[in-house]
Amino acid sequence: MERAIRTGTMQVTALCLVAAGILLALGAAGVPGSLPLLGLLLALSAGLYYTRPDARMGRVAGIDVDSLLSTLWLAPALAALAVAFESTASPAELQALGGLVGLAGMLNYFLRPMYLLAYSLVEAVQNRGSGSADR
What we know:
The protein is mainly α. The protein contains 6 helices and 2 strands. Helix content is about 75%, strand content about 5%.
């Protein structure tokens, strides 16, 4: 289960950073937030969902690449959510939204040790509780 927590939190971080990169690039290109942009991001998300790779790459540098590639379609969906939140954003505001999404991803990354500590504490309490019931 600890491995699942590590993988899951790393996936959330990576997806937030990719979504932030999408928003930052769009803002830097001068694209304002709009309904056509929202549709484009949702279409990109759907395209990535339907073309997910089935190949097995395994772990690279301790990161489960298979899991990341299978959930990559969520990054444009997350960017679309940010655009839907502020559909009339100027390009600079789109970059700011990208910065906030990236900040959320990095906050998740820095809180990973806390998630693992909480899991370890809950597991220790459960193990201790089940051990005392057997006596």
